[in-house]
Specification:
Elements lengths: L3 E4 L25 E2 L19 E2 L8 E4 L7 E5 L6 E6 L4 E6 L3 E3 L11 E6 L2 H8 L3 H4 L5 E4 L14 E16 L8 H4 L12 H11 L2 E19 L6 H11 L5 H16 L2 E7 L3 H5 L6 H10 L5 E9 L7 H15 L6 E5 L2 E6 L2 E6 L4 E2 L3 E2 H4 L13 E4 L14 E6 L2 E6 L4 E2 L5 E2 H4 L10 E6 L2 E6 L2 E6 L4 E2 L5 E2 H4 L10 E6 L2 E6 L2 E6 L4 E2 L5 E2 L14
Parallel strand pairs: 1-13, 3-7
Antiparallel strand pairs: 2-6, 4-5, 4-12, 6-7, 8-11, 9-11, 10-14, 11-12, 12-13, 12-14, 15-16, 16-17, 17-18, 17-19, 20-21, 21-22, 22-23, 22-24, 25-26, 26-27, 27-28, 27-29, 30-31, 31-32, 32-33, 32-34
Helix pairs in contact: 5-6
């Protein structure tokens, strides 16, 4: 039987990816908005013939600021659109009356968000691809265009199997209504005319962060209210289930099949049920009925659908950047750039330490991080750190490392030397004179005898006698004392570096105390050199371009 877990709380935004399958069931009838009898007037202090109607579900989020950060739970900020007067409305489907602020509107026949449909199926062959599909696309948050995010998500890294597995999702989206703001220009003056510095500068980071903390990085324009269920399946590939088997089992769980295919569908459903771990996530409807959907019984699905009108909840949000509400285009641009710096991440090319500062190289740029002050300096062109290298074709670099603890074959200490790689050549650069040493550039094969690579992705120095060179999914171990590659190399990355799941590296660095860090894209892995394996819980994401936000740096 599958292991079933339950989650039902707002978490990090989730986007729907390219899904397989189509609508497989019919939703319950949508609610009809009815006028409330005249003697029941408003929810703003007026007398009524009965109890005052409660606020319409959806008002807890619509019109509020929201702070979005990739791979993290979102947080709601203060209300940005005032609510002075209320009007009552009633829904036939829910058999209840609600209050709605003047200036807000309701659509009882809502269109689906672009990334949703009634029932969808997604199957991916790896955790990385699954996580990419299920995670918020950060590029959407960095524009003036509205986009939608899920109001609930319970998937996280705990669903990841240590064994090779398929990851599948069955989601059902049943909206009853949307509540929205038709005129976004009618927001509070603190947003229309904010007191923030412009144009953008890294020096004003605190002011921007305070603004986002109070008002949000985005605001909620619209909310879909109803019910949404998501079943996430982890299916080990050793179970012999194929993607087609998983698809058939999920399709059968919706029901609606004719008698001829019912027996085959039942067999597929049972096979999936007995060969997977199923996690149920959802909002709206009865919680017990929602949890019962882990049985993959079509009747359980139908039973949950019937309970949605009794407990409608926010299931999707339509949001836009808070800068779209700002009148001054310079201040709007400053806020957008400030948000971009706090959430986007430019891949690391190389990392090395000089004194109490850590240098992070990124292509043709670099940043310095002061470990004592815990401050990231303003990004600078690589030429400011290493002048005149572009004359030798090193305007960009593949990787670099500092020769800490290393000694050249002639006995020269290399602690104050930087080794910089580009294509099949490298340069030795003197930190003190800020000049390239004589006799460089050189071919990698000349300076590092036995290294078979025509370029280098990353380098890791773990001691005076060990330098690792990485290219793609292979690596070699070089002994500087003997000036040659050790026997038995190259080897696959996976053979020596257990738990390093990257197919290639962007950068690597020895952090001391027997720990090394590996970087790929916006992820990092901490590796225990003593136990020869990655630490539990990795890889982890690196968010933003401010080094002080990367907690691992100051560990």
């Amino acid at each position: 039987m599958p292991k079933t877990t339950r989650a039902d709380h707002p978490e990090s935004p989730v986007k729907a990816g390219a899904r397989d399958g189509a609508d497989l069931a019919t939703p319950p009838s949508l609610p009809e908005v009815l006028p409330v009898p005249a003697k029941q007037e408003t929810a703003a202090g007026h007398k009524t013939s009965s109890k005052e109607p409660r606020p319409l579900p959806g008002l807890e989020v619509v019109g509020r600021g929201i702070h979005l950060r990739p791979y993290q739970p979102y947080s709601l900020a203060q209300l940005l659109f005032r609510r002075k007067e209320f009007r009552p409305i009633s829904f036939k489907e829910t058999r209840d009356s609600y209050s709605l602020p003047v200036g807000y509107e309701v659509n009882d026949s809502p269109p689906f968000p672009m990334n949703e449909s009634l029932n969808q199926v997604l199957i991916e062959e790896s955790w990385d691809r699954f996580e990419t599909q299920m995670s918020m696309d950060a590029s959407l948050t960095l524009s003036n265009t509205p986009f939608s995010v899920s109001a609930s998500s319970g998937w996280n890294n705990r669903l990841r199997s240590e064994q090779d597995a398929y990851y599948a999702v069955r989601s059902s989206f049943v909206p009853l209504w949307t509540v929205y703001i038709p005129d976004p220009s009618d927001c509070i003056e603190e947003i229309r005319e904010p007191s923030i510095p412009a144009p953008f500068s890294h020096r004003h980071r605190r002011a921007y962060d305070e603004f986002f903390g109070r008002y949000g990085s985005h605001y909620v324009r619209r909310a879909w209210v109803g019910g949404k269920s998501t079943l996430i399946f982890t299916v080990l590939k050793s179970s012999s289930l194929s993607k087609e088997d998983i698809q058939a089992g999920i399709k059968a769980s919706f029901g609606g099949q004719d008698s001829a295919s019912n027996m085959k569908g039942e067999a597929s459903r049972e096979k999936l049920k007995n060969s997977s771990q199923c996690t149920v996530i959802g909002k709206g409807g009865d919680e017990v009925s929602l949890a019962a959907m882990s049985s993959l019984d079509a009747q359980a699905y139908d039973g949950w659908l019937k309970t949605i009108p009794k407990n409608p909840q926010v299931i999707e949000l339509d949001v836009a950047g808070i800068w779209t509400l700002v009148r001054d285009p310079n201040k709007a641009a400053a806020l957008m750039e400030a948000y971009k710096e706090s959430v986007s991440f430019d891949p690391i090319t190389a990392v090395f330490e000089l004194g109490r500062e850590i240098y992070f190289l990124r292509g043709s740029w670099f940043v310095r991080y002061d470990r004592d002050k815990k401050v990231t300096q303003v990004p600078q062109p690589l030429s400011d750190l290493m002048p005149n290298l572009e004359e030798h074709g090193f305007d960009r670099i593949d990787t670099a490392f500092r020769g800490k603890d290393l000694v050249s074959p002639s006995g020269e200490k290399l602690d104050r030397k930087l080794f910089i790689f580009r294509h099949n050549r490298f340069i030795r650069f003197d930190v003190d004179t800020r000049q390239m040493d004589a006799g460089y550039p050189r071919l990698i094969s000349e300076g590092w005898p036995g290294v078979p690579f025509d370029r280098i992705d990353a380098v890791l120095v773990t001691g005076h006698d060990t330098v690792y060179f990485f290219l793609g999914n292979q690596y070699v171990r070089f002994n500087p004392l003997k000036n040659r590659v050790d026997e038995g190399y190259p080897q696959p990355l996976s053979k020596r570096w257990v738990g390093v799941t990257f197919d290639r590296l962007d950068a690597a660095m020895y952090w001391g105390s027997g720990q090394a860090y590996f970087f790929k894209g916006n992820q990092q892995i901490r590796y225990d050199l003593a136990n020869y394996r990655a630490d539990p819980g990795f890889p982890k994401y690196i968010i933003g371009n401010y080094v002080e936000d990367w907690k691992f740096v100051d560990d």
